[in-house]
Here is the input.
Amino acid sequence: MHKRVVVTGMGVVAPNGIGLPAFLQALQNSTSGIKLIPQYRELNFSCHVAGLPDFKWEKLANYLSEVTLHGLKGTNIGYGLVAAMDAWADSGIACETEKTRWETGCVFGNSTADTEAMKNVISRVDGKEARKLGSRVIEQAMNSGVTSYVSGQLGLGNKVITNSAACATGTQAILMGCEYIKHGYADRMLVGSTEHVDPYMYGAFDSMRVLSRKYNDQPEKASRPMSLTAGGFVPGSGAAALVLEDLEFALQRGARIYAEVLGGCTNSGGQRSGGTMTAANSEGVIRCIQGALHNAGIGPKEIDLISGHLTATNADKQEIQNWVGALGCKNGQLPMTNSLKSMIGHCLSAAGSIETVASILQIMHNFAHANINLDDPNPEILDIAGVDNLPVKMTKKEINIVAKANFGFGDVNSCVILSKFKR
Amino acid sequence: MTRQEILDELKKVISPYTTNKELLAGITEETDLIKDLKINSANLVDIIIDAEAKYNIEIDYDSADKMINVGTCMDVISEKINERG
Here is the structure.
């Protein structure tokens, strides 16, 4: 039997809003979450701005026991936990459970452990005080730290796995969870991703000269996907999570259904034919998008909105070109396209999950959020996409199907197709 | 340091590692850290590290193995305080 996968809960910790109501309002009001980070200026970085969620660490006391919270240092774990447990509560299921939930698994992604928290470990060891590190370091240093905390809090007993595919991590996690349900291995999967760009990771990106540096005095204007003045991306942090369920399973428990995940594709360009560690092989991108459409069983004309990767680097033009190539549309006739990064920056591993939550909110409320800062669009991009297809204001529009894609270092691609739920 | 003083201080050291504050308030020398206070066995090492900092002592592996209930914890701590002088 062909199984359908639906979204029944969502949680988000984004630079421009924590929780669904605040995030929806920020999307509709075109609210930027990019701020000046004075520490980055003091550290002699070229870029001094970032998208940081307004996250109150002490609020974790509402999510964790005092014992678990004591000794928790990993910011990425804090973000991931809040997004995951908010999504779970949003799906209408109690968080507390005595018994293991064998029917539910978890795919949650991240990039690295919190390097700033690990700094304490390094200085202790270098100071010959390793014995003072205690029991809580390894569980937060391991790549599966976030999934371990999330699945432990909720008692998840099906497949629990941590994925990592750079900027494609979030969309890939959603796709992996969706496939697992479609194959009948689990009834429900909690999926998502988290990212905390600490100063050490930030500094390394800064050194690559891929970050925005000309708008340090105007933080909200610093992230400018597809614009002529796009001068690099703005790092962002945060997390998002979704509860995916087999449709029949969701209907049986009377769950509220937000949207359907029709399918998707994840692949790699193999770092060949123009693809490198840091650049995408266009053929890989095109195959990924076309594979997603095929897997979802829809045609290119059915796409109402593209939620692009579009980070505000010189790769934006090639990405738009690839969308046109993949969808076989004429120049100037790209479906409406937006980039959430204009408001929140590039949340790396968390980008795919936060942008998917945004996509589903746009499906539910029938609008396309603005590409903010696109007051000077790159004319070449405008030519390929079409002047009316890159909204600069929040645009009300019936949105049935969204194609959400992310492309990451290592030449990895991921595209997921989301739809309004129709019986 | 009297035994009562050690007990009072020990309660503070243990506090972050147990959710059962009521039981903690009424602990006796027989109270078992894992069985009664439901402390995660992995966290015992954190209690030892915190106790070392609190009393300015060093608790070796063999002594740490003896720290099973409140009474044995107090025994080890007073022994180490006396050794320190």
Chain A has a mean pLDDT of 97. The domain at 5-259 of chain A is CATH 3.40.47.10 (Peroxisomal Thiolase; Chain A, domain 1). The interface with chain B takes residues 65-67, 70-71, 131-132, 134-136 of chain A (CB under 8 Å).
